[in-house]
Amino acid sequence: MTTPPSPQPRDRAEGTPAVPVPAASQSPPGRRPLIVGAWLWVGLPLAYGVYELVHKAKQLFTG
């Protein structure tokens, strides 16, 4: 009886499709304002919410 050969270690990227992913710096120049606007649309309310959370947590724990 012979033992089957042990499988070779597989590369993690082996099973992923070979589709090139564009880098952020390669985005079309016309879309950059849209991307910045989208980040601000989400980021500003998020930052304000975190600020309010910290402020109210201080009040809760310090009296």
From TrEMBL:
Instruction: Identify the taxonomic lineage of the organism of origin.
Output: Bacteria, Bacillati, Actinomycetota, Actinomycetes, Kitasatosporales
Alphabetical keyword list: Membrane, Transmembrane, Transmembrane helix
Chain intervals for the UniProt region annotation (Disordered)? 1-31
| Source organism of the structure | Streptomyces flavofungini
The residue ranges flagged as biased composition, category Low complexity, are 17-29
Q: Where are the transmembrane segments?
A: 34-54
By what name is this protein known? ABC transporter permease
